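FAQ

Q: What does a record look like?
A: Structure on top, sequence underneath. For example:
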């Protein structure tokens, strides 16, 4: 198999082959290898003649399982749920006398593990006689939450204290490497960025800086540096050391657009990579509150990734081949396509690009973000920690223009590596659990755990060459795996009739066309737009399933399940994610918000300044409770505040006055039903905000540019001002403000669809908050039945409108809802906005006369002369059409 598989995978640049073999196999050498099986019922029935896994056979022989008596059928690596970050190796073994097969497990040192030890690690027995399971897809919502930027970086708008410009990248050499690999039909990962090392690392050690100085702020100290990599389309920053005292944090942002910012990041972590920031100059800032111990700070930046290729372009000028099919042209696949993401991660020699799929689990009402891709795309936990997934990177209309990757929803924060087999020893899969929550409009794709037949119609959805999403159609051809040097027990062969795959498609799902369910993930192959009939090979999902079945039937223990394993938060505002499926309650743990609960998880936050703070679970997918505490032991905590509000979306929000330098523990649990005893669980979205949002006050309304657009925000911590109108009759609430100046005449439409709470929306004109005139207002979207809001109103060019978004006031709770806001606006131009009354393509004296006649109540043949849409034709309309005829602005 080795030589043929080498031509399949390794016929590409040296940097890719290094990633697949050096990284993938060396990392797994300490935790196990992977193997093959014929079907879920029993692996590989014809393996007795050869020792397929010599390393595994040698290890087991040293434990008394000699190869003359035992055959290793399959090996794999899997994470231990109760010891996050640890892996063990599994071996499926059969005795040659025909006795039933059994499983053995070894730790990283090769010691076999007992059943008691396996139980302590949370390893569940594998069921190799599983009944066939067909998991249906779970569709996403029409819109979803976006990562909220509650306030700009502290140093935004000011000159950075220090600046570093890196040497130019040798692009000629980089492109030669890339082109050499592109000349083969391999389906390897696609490189879009290379490493650039700093000649002198940037270090902070206490108050000592190798570059820059500390600036004094009213509530602490700020250090920042700008890093420029000339010509970079984007950068990722590497921290080889990041040790921050409680309350301290870092932000990373785009120097030209501070609204693109990432953070706050806190705690202690080495080998940390920032999310991708789309500019050649990226600013890193570090804030340490006055009450923190500055001498505990250790920070070191030693390299960056210089992104040189747009995700939709091959670096030497070619995008994906011309034979590809735009997935948007096939609306019947839209729901499944939404769950296919483009993934970027840090590999051996740069920023690499593949494809993966969000898949469903077997737990009712659970949508944990399990993500399936190939091992040669993500080969270790270190690589998974750098993962970010770009969702909905696709055209909005059939064969339309693709969006820029910076503008599509993205899940950052890395992933947990759960189980894997390598391409050499198994079916080349990797199962991950994303640490961030995907946007709610993204669906989870279903799967089938039984084999499928030759000639079965199949479909592939993928990102060829890192380009926008495409779709391919074909059929299973089981002659293909053997001709490409891999086992048909592990892989499906495919031949395409429409579309193909390319580098960057790796890890993408193979789907049964009739049911739209996953049956495999892409290893490689020879198909291309120059070889339309050449085969590809996909690792079989029915081989994968027995290994990943424990995760499909439960999310596994959360890493912050116990009080002692809290996850550290930092900053004045931010957002984090988690889950409480398989969470537990510890002895002595209090009842959060006076509910028994039973599946709690923990975070820790140190207040950077004194002020009112709100912790909210708005956007979580289940009925949550929140408890805030001080103290150092789970059985001796002092409660500060709790909330288990049963409002819209089952969200909870706990507000209290935090004291600078005090560390608070935040517990999120599921509400326990007193009748059934069932405890709610699922994905958690936790948001915190010190003080009010930047657009809390009318005078701080955020400007909305252009005729159409969308933005995000939140009303956590927002308040009502003196003299502010009672939006939809509610005398109190949490309003925030935007302003929009109509660029033309027409019908304006404003919506909060995609917000994760029960909103109200009001539009006003006026110059002061106490002198506003109501234009339009809405509570619920009656047409769609949503509790978000939508309204329309006639807009006049040049008029400024003020938009107030608030939460619905719940009289029984005497509280208005809060959460994350999605706000969209658009203008449908008036057909008369150009003053061409008779529609002949020009504005002249005839149009002027028509408006004058209409103003005099004379018949103009049913034409509409109300240019400014104020329901009457008068001197204003006459002046506007005269201006237009003279080539002047039509504004009166």
């Amino acid at each position: 198999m080795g030589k043929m598989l080498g031509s399949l995978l390794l016929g590409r640049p040296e940097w890719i082959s290094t990633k697949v073999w050096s990284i993938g196999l060396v990392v797994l050498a300490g935790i196990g290898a992977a193997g093959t099986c014929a079907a879920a019922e029993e692996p590989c029935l014809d393996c007795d003649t050869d020792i397929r896994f010599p390393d595994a056979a040698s290890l087991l022989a040293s434990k008394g399982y000699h190869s003359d008596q035992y055959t290793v059928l399959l090996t794999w690596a899997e994470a231990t749920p109760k010891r996050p970050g640890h892996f063990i190796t599994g071996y499926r073994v059969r005795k040659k006398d025909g006795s039933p097969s059994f499983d053995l497990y070894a730790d990283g040192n090769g010691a076999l593990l007992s059943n008691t030890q396996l139980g302590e690690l949370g390893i569940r027995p594998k069921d190799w006689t599983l009944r066939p399971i067909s998991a249906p897809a779970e569709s996403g919502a029409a819109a979803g939450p976006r990562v909220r930027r509650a306030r700009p970086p502290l140093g935004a708008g000011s000159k950075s204290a220090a600046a570093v410009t890196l040497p130019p990248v040798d692009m000629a050499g980089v492109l030669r490497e890339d082109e050499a690999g592109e000349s083969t039909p391999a389906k390897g990962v696609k490189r879009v960025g290379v490493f650039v090392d700093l000649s002198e690392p940037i270090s902070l050690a206490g108050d000592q800086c190798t570059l820059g100085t500390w600036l004094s702020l009213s509530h602490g100290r700020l250090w920042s540096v700008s890093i420029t990599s000339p010509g970079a389309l984007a950068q990722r920053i590497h921290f080889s050391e990041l040790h921050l005292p409680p309350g301290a944090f870092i932000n990373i942002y785009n120097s030209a657009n501070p609204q693109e910012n990432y953070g706050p990041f806190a705690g202690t972590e080495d080998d940390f990579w920032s999310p991708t920031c789309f500019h050649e100059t990226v600013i890193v800032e570090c804030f340490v509150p006055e009450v923190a111990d500055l001498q505990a700070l250790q920070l070191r930046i030693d390299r960056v990734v210089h992104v040189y290729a747009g995700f939709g372009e091959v670096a030497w000028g070619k995008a994906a081949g011309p034979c590809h099919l735009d997935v948007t042209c096939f609306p019947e696949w839209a729901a499944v396509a939404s769950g296919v993401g483009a993934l970027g991660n840090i590999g051996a020699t740069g920023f690499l690009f593949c494809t993966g799929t969000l898949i469903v689990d077997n737990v009712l009402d659970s949508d944990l973000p399990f993500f399936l891709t190939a091992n040669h795309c993500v080969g270790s936990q270190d690589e998974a920690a750098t993962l970010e997934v770009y969702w909905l990177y696709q055209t909005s209309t059939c064969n339309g223009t693709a969006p820029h990757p910076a503008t599509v929803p993205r899940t950052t924060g890395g992933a947990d590596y759960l189980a894997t087999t390598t391409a050499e020893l198994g079916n080349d899969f990797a199962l991950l659990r994303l640490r961030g929550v995907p946007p709610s409009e993204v669906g989870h794709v279903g799967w089938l755990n039984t084999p499928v037949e030759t000639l079965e119609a199949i479909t592939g959805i993928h990102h060829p060459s890192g380009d926008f999403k495409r779709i391919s159609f074909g059929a299973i051809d089981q002659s293909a795996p053997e001709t490409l040097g891999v086992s048909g027990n592990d892989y499906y062969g495919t031949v395409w009739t429409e579309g193909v795959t390319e580098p960057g498609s790796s890890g993408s799902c193979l789907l049964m066309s009739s049911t739209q369910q996953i049956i495999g993930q892409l290893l490689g192959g020879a198909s291309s737009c120059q070889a339309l009939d050449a085969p590809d090979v996909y690792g079989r999902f029915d081989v994968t399933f027995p290994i990943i079945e424990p995760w499909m039937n439960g999310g596994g223990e959360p890493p912050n399940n116990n009080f002692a394993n809290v996850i550290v938060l930092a900053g004045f505002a931010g957002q984090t994610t988690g889950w409480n499926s398989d969470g537990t309650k510890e002895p002595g743990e209090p009842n959060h918000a006076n509910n028994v609960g039973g599946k709690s998880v923990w975070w820790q936050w140190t207040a950077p300044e004194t002020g009112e703070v709100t912790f909210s679970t708005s956007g979580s997918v289940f009925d949550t409770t929140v408890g805030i505490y001080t103290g150092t032991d789970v059985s001796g905590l002092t409660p500060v505040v709790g909330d288990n509000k049963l409002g819209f979306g089952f969200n909870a929000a706990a507000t209290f006055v935090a004291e600078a330098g005090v560390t608070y523990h935040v517990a999120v649990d599921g509400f326990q039903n007193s009748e059934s005893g069932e405890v709610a669980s699922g994905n958690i979205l936790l948001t915190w905000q010190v003080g009010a949002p930047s657009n809390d006050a009318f005078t701080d309304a955020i400007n909305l540019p252009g005729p159409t657009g969308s933005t995000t925000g939140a009303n956590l911590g927002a308040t009502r001002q003196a003299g502010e109108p009672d939006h939809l009759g509610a005398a109190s609430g949490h309003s925030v403000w935007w302003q929009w100046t109509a660029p033309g005449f027409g019908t304006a439409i404003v919506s909060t669809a995609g917000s994760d709470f029960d909103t109200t929306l009001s539009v006003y004109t006026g110059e002061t908050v106490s002198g506003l005139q109501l234009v339009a207002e809405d509570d619920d979207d009656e047409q769609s039945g949503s509790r978000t809001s939508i309204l329309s109103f006639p807009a006049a060019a040049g008029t400024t409108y003020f938009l107030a978004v608030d939460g619905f006031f719940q009289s029984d709770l005497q509280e208005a809802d809060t959460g994350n806001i999605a706000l969209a606006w658009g203008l449908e131009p008036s057909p008369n906005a150009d003053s061409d009354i008779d529609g002949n393509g020009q504005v002249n004296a005839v149009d002027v006369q028509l408006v004058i006649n209409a103003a005099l109540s004379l018949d103009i043949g049913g034409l509409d002369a109300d240019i400014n849409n104020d329901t009457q034709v008068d001197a204003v309309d006459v002046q506007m059409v005269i201006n237009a005829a003279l080539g002047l602005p039509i504004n009166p």
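Q: Is there anything notable about this one?
A: Residues 195 and 305 are 5 Å apart (CA to CA).
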